[in-house]
Amino acid sequence: MTQSAITASPNTPDRTLTFLSYLTALVLAVCLWAAPAPAQSLQDEFDAGILGYPEKRLVQAALAFSGDYVGLLDGDWGAGSQRALDSYALRTTGSRRPTYQSVSTLLSDFGNEVATNDWQTIYYESLGVSYAHPLKLLLESDDPSVTQFDSADDSFSVVIDYADRTGATAVHAYVYGQGQRRPAPYQNYQDDRLITSVTLPGGLLAYVRSDWVGDGYVTFSIIAADQHRTRLSLIAGSLQKGQAPQFVLPADGRLAAILTGGAAYAAIDPDLGVDPNPFDGVDPDAGGNPFGTPQPEVDPGVDPEFAAIPDPFNNDDTLTEEQIDPPEDWNSGNFTSSGTGFYINRDYLVTAAHVVEGCRRMELANATALEVVRSEPDLDLAVLKVPG
Description:
By secondary structure, the chain is α+β, with helices and mostly antiparallel strands. The protein contains eight helices and 16 strands. A seven-stranded antiparallel sheet has the order 3-4-5-9-8-7-6, sandwiched between helices. Strand 15 (369-376) and strand 16 form a beta hairpin. Helix 2 (53-66) crosses helix 4 (100-117) and helix 2 (53-66) packs antiparallel against helix 6 (229-238).
């Protein structure tokens, strides 16, 4: 039998083999490209890198409420956010490796708080400022001269004011001066932001933040008993310019898919009251957890249902600035002076020391009497009190 020799020149490649190799590589590449990514489970390690802004901000908010995170709820997941989650996982599970199961438990606890106290993101359109507010816990004060919200037992209070730099600085100086030396008070002054954080006598916590908006500073003064420490952190961290989203988990987001296994949301167990599972998709108005309702990344505005909190800066008459103007019959041939003061809570105002210097008696423009609690001429600051 005659055998045919197959020879190939070194400079002439076998086109059949080359094509087959290319086709095999192409099929392999197509298979690799089309292969679905493995589904993530609750036991996988948490990866913030795959999440969107509202999801990361929600986890930050939950960590603020758990007491593990103190910082801005900005959705910027950095080292501080990761350390907070690591701390939460170590404290609750004994593991330094936070999983999606840890995050599920974290969000469940926070979801119950959101539903119980009806946390909503309030947006003051006239100032372009928003913050988180527990509508069922902090109720508006009856005093029309001050924008203030208090808990029923007066253990938690938020005061909102708008003033120039002198007025805003006076509030910070007063609160800083009232703070205990241990733990050490904190202050940070920048051109567009002033922050003061102290512990007051009796263990009360005080946090004051002023942001430059328009031609003045909007100031949030938060005072809380230790039982509300994490709620104070939650409000403080939520303060920001612009519209912020509500505390909801986007139902079509990556995190919701992982925490629910990609399955449809389960119905609420009516025996549980407030459902511990924050991802059930039930309408919050029906008593379910608010995380189930999809929301846009930026909230379009405050729901009319929550318009009970007025915008105090749309009407000049609602500002907390008060005129201090003694009547002429006080001076008996001496002198009169007038000026403006700014409420730091419902009973105390701050004004310039030169306004009260030499005055025997003072009152507001509405004839309410005032007492001088303390005057510091070197700082040109004076603290006044409404008696009773």
